Amino acid sequence: MEFFVYSRAAPGAANADHGRALDEEHWSYMDRFADGMTARGPTFAADRETWTGSMHIVDLPSAEAAREFAEREPYHRAGLFEDHMIRRFTNRLGRTMWESAGGSVDPRFLVIAQCLAAAGQHAADVVPGFTALPRERLIVHGELFTADGARPAGVVLALQAPTREAVDALVGSGQDGLDQHPDVQILDWEFGGRRR
After folding, report:
1. DSSP state, 79?
2. Does residue 3 surpass a pLDDT of 50?
3. pTM over 0.90
């Protein structure tokens, strides 16, 4: 089963010089999960330089394994993360980020829209489709559920767009209901992995 893990940077971590050795330790740790990875990468503030956290979508056997994945991660052990959002993930595109069309020079963004369903509510009532963008602009698109998979908890998508304002306009358009979610975050995002 797939899990969406968003690890938010601790205060002050963005400016900390954690060094190349810790980066390599992080990448080596992630190599162990490469076969089950759907997407990964760091998030940034609007300046695209200030690190705000890290996102991973990974196939793991249980919610407990997802918590262990986050807690054993080298950046977490070094104190760089304040907390982790862990949600079950259903892949609406059926592909990994490496299989997305790409080719555009536009920046990438991560949109996390959280909304916990009421008891008995169906996912379709809480988690809308997202059709405002051409499929080739979507890198990741999935439904979020509580870590135990029992209740819908929102949507997540990674996409390419010309500007943050363009993403704001899509989210606020009301076409697909993302603006109805009480907690919507738009983060600048990049593909993760080793940087030489």
Report:
1. T
2. yes
3. no
